[in-house]
Amino acid sequence: MTDTLLETAPLAIDDAAADRIFRHARSTSLWTTDEVTDARLEAAWDLAKLGPTAMNTLPLRLLVVRSPEAKQRLSAHMAEGNKPKVEAAPVSLVLAADPAFHEHLDELFPVYPGIREQLAPATDVREQMARKNALLQAGYLIVALRAVGLATGPMDGMDADGIDGEFFADSGWKSLLVVNVGIADGEGSSHPRGKRLGFEQVAEIL
Amino acid sequence: MTDTLLETAPLAIDDAAADRIFRHARSTSLWTTDEVTDARLEAAWDLAKLGPTAMNTLPLRLLVVRSPEAKQRLSAHMAEGNKPKVEAAPVSLVLAADPAFHEHLDELFPVYPGIREQLAPATDVREQMARKNALLQAGYLIVALRAVGLATGPMDGMDADGIDGEFFADSGWKSLLVVNVGIADGEGSSHPRGKRLGFEQVAEIL
Q1: Domain B26-186 maps to which CATH number in 3.40.50.970, 3.40.109.10, 2.60.120.10, 3.30.70.100?
Q2: What pLDDT digit, counting tens, does each position of B146-196 carry?
Q3: Which of A108, A191, B69, B171 suits a disulfide with A56, CB 3.0-4.6 Å?
Q4: Considering CB atoms only, which of B13, B39, B191 is closest to A20?
């Protein structure tokens, strides 16, 4: 097969953008003292929210942990090696899935009237849908945070149930990841990039 | 808090790139006859593979379904409304999680020697890690496909176990989503965009 488009224009975005969101972007754990404002987080959300989810469910929720007191509460539930990372970051975002996403579906997915009522009793289905689609959205959000000029440090090493008990006892949100956010402080702020699997290692063609 | 950076430069990528990957990008189900080459899919993978995963596990795998015969095999396991979408798309990608990702960790995560052996007997843990991180990567990939000029049509309505039995009996991959890929055929190729939840609806600030 020929792909003349690919020969003339391998990317549909400019190199600076591809560098910013993927090629030069690195997970970070050393930060400048620059503040991360809610306005900047909102700018990232305003991009990420546009990414597709099943039935426009949009189940991702964000706990923005900025105050020293909230940082301490979060840090208590992180794996040992991640505690200092939470404490050092300008902001830590707890990315969570909201199993009560169905309450918004009259507005978000009006083409399917009654879906809110249909999902209401299906607690397990809702939690599964929430986790799946919120993780997709977490991928969009990491890209979007980079697109507004922030670096990220995503972390999985944490006691998710502990975080849920600490912060989400009322809302029922389910924590998925914690992502530190800020401006990277120079070259030493990330490890050398690990190897990646090539297309031929991950793809099967039929 | 002030954010002078935000006032002068709300985005760190140019508007054309933000439009391409988020603001003008739409889920699509009408396609031009342009071919989607493996080279173009590889260009997307070469961006998406750079996104972060826990311990650099990179568990996302891609089944590239292009031949009419393979399309028929896939279509048989899709929800009724998605069958014609699979048949119409130039390429359908089955995005899957590989629970055997640990076999690559000596190469991908050499800073933790022994992690491959440690994970080998932990089948359930591996499957959970694979699903979680592959979904994050699915988010990166949808953005990356757009970044190389393709439109996407992600679909969740399918018999995942049926697909796994049909295609992944040997590899053990677990299907997560099917994403149709191609060049969108004009304005009528997508529905009007659904509403989105604003930052104030999804974020709690501490």
Answers
A1: 3.40.109.10
A2: 999 999 999 999 999 999 999 999 999 999 999 999 999 987 777 889 999
A3: A108
A4: B13
Cβ contact, residue pair B13, A147, below 8 Å:
yes
A152 to chain B: which residues are within 8 Å by CB?
52
Considering only the beta carbons, identify the residue of A70, A136, A148 that sits closest to B10. Answer: A148
Q: CA-nearest residue of chain A to B3?
A: A37
Write the DSSP symbol of residue A97.
E
Q: Is A178 helix (H, G, I), strand (E, B) or coil?
A: strand
Model-level pTM?
Answer: 0.95
Rounded Cα distance, B81 and B72, in Å: 15
Check: complex ipTM more than 0.90: yes
Angle at which helices B123-147 and B38-48 cross, to 10°: 110
Tell me the C-alpha distance between B13 and A15, whole Å: 10
